Amino acid sequence: MENENIADNVLNEPFWVVARVTTGKEDEVCETCGDMLSKDVLKDIFVPKYIRLKKYRGEWRRETRPLYSGYVFMVTDDPGALDKALTKVPGYHRLLKAADVILTVNDEEKAFINRIAGRDNVVEISTGYKEGDKITVVSGPMMGLEGDIVHVDRHKRLVTVNISLFGRMVKTTMGLELTYKKPEE
């Protein structure tokens, strides 16, 4: 059974598929898959990440965390062959499927992830300000996502954002430096 996205891939561009892995083992699975799988089956593998600031002993330090905990993104020309090849990889769980159909990331979702994470697949910290209940992002990849913010943790300098993945909204965390003053222009 073929996925609609697979059947409609007239441009023969590689597919992005997503594997569910043990949370905290994303980088390990990336490395193992990169070593074990042929480039004919696996074109690229990555874990989109975000940067956050975390306070250790009174000092703020930059930390990198997975944007989608427990998920690894894979690029392939043949999702079925990749699914079969992954059965040999230790620590692997499964490609995301719906009714035995491998789900692929659509073009809008690819473009969005590429826009916020860039070439290195890392979402930098955005900056913004808060006036009353309204948040305005003035720089960084979160510009234009203000309406998708569902929770702000000002003390940890994090926000929870709704992002579309496989046509449904998924909550994820990103770094945001917030002030209560509008920056001077």
Structure summary:
With 185 residues, this protein is of the alpha+beta class. The chain has helices at 4-7, 26-36, 79-85, 107-117, and strands at residues 15-21, 44-46, 49-56, 59-66, 71-76, 92-95, 97-98, 101-102, 122-123, 126-131, 134-139, 149-153, 158-165, 168-179. It is elongated.
Q: Keywords, please?
A:
185 residues; 14 strands; single chain; five-stranded mixed sheet; 43% strand; alpha+beta; 18% helix; disordered N terminus; 4 helices; Alpha-Beta Plaits; four-stranded antiparallel sheet
Q: What features would you describe in this structure?
A:
With 185 residues, the protein is of the alpha+beta class. The chain has a single domain, classed as 2-Layer Sandwich (Alpha-Beta Plaits), CATH 3.30.70. It is 18% helix and 43% strand. The protein contains four helices and 14 strands. The chain has helices spanning 4-7, 26-36, 79-85, 107-117; strands spanning 15-21, 44-46, 49-56, 59-66, 71-76, 92-95, 97-98, 101-102, 122-123, 126-131, 134-139, 149-153, 158-165, 168-179. The strands form four sheets. Strands 11-10-14-13-12 form a five-stranded mixed beta sheet, with no helix packed on it. A hairpin with a 2-residue loop joins strand 7 (97-98) and strand 8. The longest helix has 11 residues, at 26-36. It is elongated and about 55 Å long. It starts with a helix and ends in a 6-residue tail after the last strand.
Secondary structure layout plus pairing:
Layout: H1 4-7, E1 15-21, H2 26-36, E2 44-46, E3 49-56, E4 59-66, E5 71-76, H3 79-85, E6 92-95, E7 97-98, E8 101-102, H4 107-117, E9 122-123, E10 126-131, E11 134-139, E12 149-153, E13 158-165, E14 168-179
Parallel strand pairs: 3-9, 10-14
Antiparallel strand pairs: 1-5, 1-6, 2-5, 3-4, 7-8, 10-11, 12-13, 13-14
